[in-house]
From TrEMBL:
Keyword Kinase: no
Family annotation (InterPro entries): Alpha/beta_knot_MTases, RNA_MeTrfase_TrmJ/LasT, SpoU_MeTrfase, tRNA_m1G_MTases_N
Substrates-to-products reaction catalysed: cytidine(32) in tRNA + S-adenosyl-L-methionine = 2'-O-methylcytidine(32) in tRNA + S-adenosyl-L-homocysteine + H(+); uridine(32) in tRNA + S-adenosyl-L-methionine = 2'-O-methyluridine(32) in tRNA + S-adenosyl-L-homocysteine + H(+)
Organism name: Dolichospermum planctonicum
PANTHER family named among the record's database cross-references: TRNA (CYTIDINE_URIDINE-2'-O-)-METHYLTRANSFERASE TRMJ, TRNA/RRNA METHYLTRANSFERASE
Domain tRNA/rRNA methyltransferase SpoU type per the UniProt entry, residue ranges: 15-164
Function: Catalyzes the formation of 2'O-methylated cytidine (Cm32) or 2'O-methylated uridine (Um32) at position 32 in tRNA.
Intracellular or extracellular location(s): Cytoplasm
Protein name: tRNA (cytidine/uridine-2'-O-)-methyltransferase TrmJ
Top EC group: transferase
Length: 250
């Protein structure tokens, strides 16, 4: 049993659980508890609507109170994803966008392929989940199949299911298979998207009223490519050179 616990911790320790605007302290405490159960320790709360240190939260955390106490609080989802190289978001509703939707068993092992490099598993609000804009920050989406008679899952239950699937997959990825590829962190990608949008607006390829939808397609295209840090630097260099050439010709 001790060996199994160490294996889970080593394989999943780079996975960050991100809760976006959680409202229920009981849920937040329960999430910390299930994270402890499955060897995860990094929790980020995005603009939480409850007090993580209140009695209800700490009571439900039980032996996961250290995770609760060390949870990082940020204002926005992009801040939570800084440094992460991969991100999967959970959904509990119909989705007709272009991001792949999978079940946890097939999708979550993908997070474990980048050993020791931070990756994020994102959960939305208890009442309405994640917005379409927030979903665009993820490479993949996960939907947990439930009974149509009562499809709504409690936040902590959804986290528990995903943590369990991660722990079951963790034995497939060992240190000998570490990737040497430096995948670009999501905040570097976000900086590139901002520069790209600014340039495309300046040259008239994008229009302000349609920029968001067109940039969404660019995000999906680049997210499928899993660009390396050097490649993103090269693309940003091209944008800067184009801007320099435009300004020089004026």
């Amino acid at each position: 049993m001790i060996t199994e616990n160490i294996s889970i911790k080593n394989s999943c320790s780079h996975v960050i659980i991100v809760l976006v605007e959680p409202a229920g302290p009981l849920n937040v405490g329960s999430v910390a508890r299930v994270m402890k159960n499955f060897g995860l320790s990094k929790l980020i709360l995005v603009n939480p609507q409850c007090d993580r240190s209140c009695f209800d939260a700490t009571k439900m955390a039980v032996h996961g109170q250290d995770i609760l106490a060390s949870a990082v609080i940020v204002d926005t989802l992009p801040q939570a994803l800084q440094g992460c190289v991969r991100a999967i978001a959970t959904i509990g509703r119909d989705y007709s966008g272009e991001i792949p939707v999978e079940n946890p068993r097939t999708a979550l092992p993908w997070l474990l392929e980048t050993l020791e490099k931070p990756v994020a598993l994102i959960f939305g609000r208890e009442d309405r989940g994640l917005t379409n804009e927030e979903l665009n920050y993820a490479h993949k989406l996960v939907f947990i199949p439930t009974s149509p008679e009562y499809p709504s899952l409690n936040l902590a239950a959804a986290v528990a299911i995903c943590c369990y699937e991660l722990s079951q997959s963790s034995s497939l990825f060992i240190d000998d298979n570490k990737s040497t590829v430096e995948i670009a962190p999501l905040d570097a990608m976000e900086a590139y998207y901002q520069e790209l949008e600014s340039l495309l607006l300046a040259i008239g390829y994008l229009y302000p009223h349609t920029a968001a939808s067109r940039m969404e397609k660019f995000r999906h295209l680049y997210n499928r490519a899993y660009l390396q840090t050097g490649e993103v630097g090269m693309l940003r260099g091209i944008l800067r050179q184009v801007e320099w050439a435009i300004n020089r010709s004026k």
